[in-house]
Amino acid sequence: MKKGLLVGLAVLGTVLATGCGGNSDTAAPQQNSTAGVTPTVTAETTPFATAEAAPTTDASSSQNQTSDSDIGEEKAKAAALEHAGLKEGDVTFVKAELDHDDGRTVYDVDFYSGSTEYDYEIDASTGEIVSYDSEIENYDIPAQTQQSGDMITADQAKEAALKAAGLDAANVKWVKEELDRDDGRTVYELECVSGEMEYDFEINAADGTVLEQGKESIYD
Question: Domains of the chain (ranges plus CATH)?
Answer without folding.
Answer: 68-137 (3.10.450.40), 146-220 (3.10.450.40)
